[in-house]
UniProtKB/TrEMBL annotation:
It comes from the Bacteria. PANTHER family: AMINE OXIDASE. It comes from Mesobacillus jeotgali. Residues 104-363 form the Amine oxidase domain. The lineage of its organism: Bacteria, Bacillati, Bacillota, Bacilli, Bacillales. Pfam families: Amino_oxidase (PF01593), NAD_binding_8 (PF13450). Belongs to the flavin monoamine oxidase family. This is FAD-dependent oxidoreductase.
């Protein structure tokens, strides 16, 4: 039996699920997280001034119950309330800012059934974290170096918010981080093999080039016009919009941007949100001009998510899977995170699938 704990790097969905699985088998775990919060690319936000408006996802949002069994079962087992994604009514298509907005009614069954969590995906993250022993998760702790010891085990160096560095001994390490962050930010001793490091760098970080915005209104007024809230736009700045309303009285729309990271950074948040509001008015009329709240998150500017290469927009869905086909490095450092999943890479399901594989690998090593 391992005398030292398993250290999990990253308190996103994948890292926390791996920790919960190991703890349930009596295995001691420490979860190290560079951010000041848990969740990773799960981020559900509410207004400090008006919490009654609800909490909205600015990171991962949906899952698909017909295709994604792990998350579907986990949400059910934890008893978390869900919201079926609203898809009734016409979708809008915008080719240019000056041209007419086209309205299309899709045939029944054309939109795959998807589900959101009431209160945001953060409710899932919080429920998993609550199952861990108190003090398991250490925030503001950024892993800088990982060294394999000749006698077995691993030594980790982690930076603290006050600039100090602490040394941690581990029986094994699970890296539940974007592969590019692993390759660029952690020094390995001995060095990672070239092929493995190249494979890590070759996996684009899901959402790292993206930004999301949510506009909250006093009611989902577009539904009264027979609209689903779904939009495809070539005019921008949002290229894709969906209904994000909760089961409360308020309405909400959220969108993904079509403009690249550098352009968003050059424009700045104030100008971006002005352009977003202009677009929503174009699409949905004057009622869209006065949101009760606007939430914005640019993942491309998030140091714990994105590296420089992630600023290049993805044109196709990335090929994910194990880095260079390796479940682990020297059987002591095991790869997790959604970018290492064999299926559903980039999705919440992929994060959970990778966690289950990593936890199984640790248990096998024991």
């Amino acid at each position: 039996m391992m005398k030292q704990p398993v250290v999990i790097v990253g308190a996103g969905l994948s890292g926390l699920h791996a920790a919960a699985l190991l703890v349930s088998k009596g295995i001691s775990c420490r979860v190290l997280e560079a951010r000041s919060r848990i969740g990773g690319r799960v981020l559900s936000m509410e207004s400090n001034d008006r919490p009654e408006l609800g909490r909205y996802d600015l990171g991962s949002t949906w899952y698909w119950p017909n295709h994604e069994p792990i998350i579907t079962k986990l949400v059910k087992d934890l008893g978390l309330p869900t919201i079926e994604q609203y898809a009734a009514g016409a979708i809008l298509f915008e080719q240019s800012q000056s041209g007419p907005v086209q309205r299309h009614v899709l045939p029944d069954g054309a939109v795959e059934r998807s589900v959101r969590l009431d209160g945001g995906v953060q409710t899932l993250v919080d429920a998993i974290a609550a199952s861990l022993p108190e003090g398991s998760v250490e925030l503001n702790t950024e892993v800088k170096a990982i060294q394999l010891e000749k006698a077995g085990g691993v030594t980790i160096e982690a930076g603290q918010i006050d600039g100090s560095v602490k040394t941690i001994s581990a029986g094994a390490v699970i890296l539940a981080l974007p592969p590019r962050i692993v390759a660029e930010r952690i020094a390995f001793s001995p060095a990672l093999p070239d092929g493995l490091r190249a494979s890590l760098k070759d996996k684009p970080t899901w959402m790292a080039g993206q930004a999301k915005v949510v506009a909250v209104y006093d009611r989902p007024f577009w539904r009264e016009e027979g609209l689903s809230g779904q939009v495809t736009s070539w005019a921008g700045p949002l290229q894709e919009i969906h209904d994000a309303s909760s089961d409360n009285e308020y309405g909400a729309l959220f969108g993904f941007f079509g403009i690249p990271t550098k352009m968003r950074q050059d424009l700045g948040e104030e100008q971006i949100l002005r352009l977003v509001t202009d677009q929503l008015i174009r699409l949905f009329g004057p009622s869209a001009g006065n949101p009760l709240a606007l939430f914005y998150k640019d993942w491309g500017s998030d140091q714990a998510t994105a590296v420089d290469e992630d600023a290049i927009p993805l044109t196709t869905f990335p090929e994910y899977g194990l880095p260079a086909g390796n479940i682990s490095w020297e059987k002591s450092v095991i790869f997790a995170g959604t970018e290492t999943a064999s299926g559903h890479g980039g999705h919440l399901e992929g994060a959970l699938q990778a966690a289950e594989r990593a936890a199984a690998e640790v248990m096998k090593a024991l």
